Automatic annotation (TrEMBL), chains A, D:
Lineage: Bacteria, Bacillati, Actinomycetota, Actinomycetes, Micromonosporales
Source organism per UniProt: Paractinoplanes pyxinae
UniProt KW Transcription keyword: no
PANTHER family: KETOACID-COENZYME A TRANSFERASE, SUCCINYL-COA:3-KETOACID COENZYME A TRANSFERASE SUBUNIT B-RELATED
UniProt key word Transferase: yes
Keywords for the protein's UniProt record, in alphabetical order: Transferase
Designated name of the protein: 3-oxoacid CoA-transferase subunit B
From TrEMBL, chains B, C:
NCBIfam families, per the entry: pcaI_scoA_fam
Organism: Paractinoplanes pyxinae
Similarity section: Belongs to the 3-oxoacid CoA-transferase subunit A family.
Keywords noted in UniProt: Transferase
Name of this chain's protein: 3-oxoacid CoA-transferase subunit A
Length: 213, 215, 215, 213
């Protein structure tokens, strides 16, 4: 069986080392927070100037001065700190975050990431912090469905969409398989309701089966 | 130092580059923007993380036809219809800057840095036309400072000299924009006597603040 | 996170570049330097604003013959006889860096900036061998990051995660050096529970601190 | 009569605009602080990370964590703020200080400053914050005796000592005259116990007499 979005988030959470400093971007990756063990010591960074971000704020907790990168109200955990935007992105760009998790339109066989623009001629370009996150964190994890609605794989030999960052993705978590982007190629780490042979057939890039398969 | 909002924004002239703090609505100097709309200066370049939400604030300034160009990281939001319409009609220029480069270019302006090599955007369409260089095996793009004629920011508490503290993630672009403009105007919720702010916790020293507006 | 001074400085290896906080004695991590002398690592490059005072601290490290090179802005002080003697005997290398470039190069290392154009030092002997460029009518020199293998700094209070606050002008190089080293060790006067530091006043977020020593 | 060091400091203090942000460097210029009117609103910056520096600390006020650029204990005034070294020099380099006051070995006719090294072959080079201050403040005031002990003028056609900064000095306060370095030359602003003619004779550069002489 392929994974639900919740199950994907749970699997990503499992792979985050205890005590890691992590940025969850916006959208689907923010679900990962729901599956982190409270005693994991994982500290969440939000690009708009905070370490130690807590769960979404509800009811009286909502404070317009305390939001995440998606501009949704959040809470503050003990041990948090606030800083301005240049310091926040210096923290990213300087390679201090352990893991950043982002969505993607496409990931290439060598870890190129495309997640900010479909390149449509009438699209209004908008990049936010994606390019900074892509090149800043020690490891970039991508969460996406493996196949687009038209059935085409989103793990591709070369991205056809405009790039967000070059050779920056280290892991790709999808609904049917998890991949590790490694120097000798893309390795299949785990599959969900699909065989490695079928993956190899449907994804148009060479795949290195996991040594544990 | 302490003035009304209309008096404060009278520093803005036609053709100015105006830095506007905020990330979404957090840290957005709404009352100063309203005063700027009243003031009437036009042909402005606005530097801000977003390009306005809904029909108020920055969006209203855009709707009033006062803005020639927007420099921002993320103009496209669910409620950015004012910008979207102007952009599609070819009535406004847009320079998209990755958020970290935007913050660092503003800091560079305030810090007297002539230009800097950033790893952000290498290999992407936003690298087009930029000077690139490999340093220590990694590729970088040369980025230049973004200076403002006027900065409009929102802080939490000021003392009467202009020292500022912020509140939570509303801090965002305020401290860097305050350093990057010839005239910095801060709207604050409260103004206290000099000596009431602990010198250890001041985020924006008074040297960067020219006008204070209490709202 | 919380360790003894000897345990903390065991991160330093022969040949390492060690960033040492402090401006004169303010912010100088004296106990960590003493532990480093005990530890015995040699062939070190020390990056610090000064090159030691009297016969203790940095001066004692130099006297013990552990330092190959000093990168600093101001080695010559009334009581810098240890450095003076080694330098005149040709037993230590010196790179003099203007204080602002020293701070900014450390910041660049922590901020992932590949290099930056600085106006400091143009037209002076310290410009020799540096790439220069005129930007917007002003001349600048290209300056590169200074990275440390280990940073030794002194702060005032830490929480158990490693968030730091400093005290008065003892803050100086601590916050930038903390960002610029692979391993940052902070000696502090007091360690409090997580949650006891106000998130608004944290100067060095815990992400930059690897080891804490209470002295 | 030529001026004492105290009188020079008093004259410099008189020329600092009310409310200015000022850096006094180390040594002789720090004496200027003694002559600032308490109600002048002048705020002192010290390169080691402080605005709002007060007078020297005495007795129980002495705190090893609170010093000036010369590493002497000082006090803190209401409205002070502390910041780290990169922020402190960004404040300088970014042109936010109104006035910086420094000593000098030599100042050239076009405002070049030499104050960090005599170029002696056995000297240990040490520059501190001088080069940053020289190019950072909106105005650089120099305080020095006009003539060296050997009688040679320290206001020179070209500096023979190694430079600290190029074309950065705007005013030169000496024991016998005050000069303004202007685009069309060095103007004599005021003299003390010496005639403009004698100045012109003894200083080897063309001098523009003040329009008010």
């Amino acid at each position: 069986m392929s994974l639900s979005r919740e199950q994907m988030a749970e699997i990503v959470a499992r792979d985050i080392p205890d005590g890691a400093y992590v940025n969850l971007g916006i959208g689907q990756p923010t679900m990962v927070a729901d599956y982190l063990r409270p005693d994991s010591g994982v500290v969440l960074h939000t690009e708009n100037g905070m370490l130690g971000m807590g769960r979404p704020a509800i009811g009286d907790e909502i404070d317009p001065d305390l939001t995440n990168a998606g501009k949704q109200p959040v809470t503050e955990l003990p041990g948090a700190s606030y800083f301005h935007h240049a310091d926040s992105f210096a923290m990213m760009r300087g390679g201090h975050l352990d893991v950043c998790i982002m969505g993607a339109f496409q990931v290439s066989a060598r870890g190129d990431l495309a997640n900010w623009s479909t390149g449509a001629p009438d699209a209004i370009p908008a990049v936010g912090g994606a390019m900074d996150l892509a090149i800043g964190a020690k490891q970039v994890f991508v969460m996406m469905s493996l196949f687009a609605k038209d059935g085409k794989p989103k793990l591709v030999p070369e991205c056809t969409y405009p790039l967000t960052g070059r050779a920056c993705v280290s892991r790709v978590y999808t609904d049917v398989a998890t991949f590790a982007v490694e120097p000798d190629g893309v390795r299949v780490v785990e599959t969900f309701g699909i065989t490695v042979d079928e993956l190899i057939t449907r994804v148009g890039i060479p795949l290195v089966p996991s040594p544990f398969d | 130092m302490i003035v009304s909002a209309p008096e404060a924004v009278s520093a803005v002239e036609d053709g100015h580059t105006v830095l506007v703090g905020g990330f979404g609505m957090a840290g957005m100097p709404v009352e100063l923007i309203d005063a700027l709309i009243e003031h009437g200066a036009g042909d402005l370049t606005i530097v801000s993380n977003n390009a306005g939400n809904g029909d108020t604030g920055l969006a209203a300034l855009l709707a009033a036809g006062r803005v020639r160009k927007v420099v921002c990281s993320f103009p496209r939001q669910s409620d950015s219809w004012v910008f979207d319409g102007l952009y599609r009609a070819g009535q406004i220029e847009l320079e998209v800057v990755p958020q970290g480069n935007l913050a660092e270019r503003l800091r560079a302006a305030g810090a007297g840095i002539g230009a800097f090599f950033s790893p952000t955007g290498v290999g992407t369409p936003l690298a087009e036309g930029k000077e690139s260089r490999v340093i220590d095996g990694r590729e970088y793009l040369l980025e230049y400072p973004i200076r403002g004629d006027v900065a409009l920011i929102r802080a939490h508490v000021a003392d009467k000299m202009g020292n500022l503290v912020y509140r939570k993630t509303a801090r965002n672009f305020g401290p860097v924009m305050a350093t990057a403009a010839a005239v910095t105007i801060a709207q604050v919720s409260r103004i206290v006597e000099v000596g009431e702010l602990d010198p250890e916790v001041v985020v924006t020293p008074a040297i960067y603040v020219n006008r204070l507006v209490q709202v």
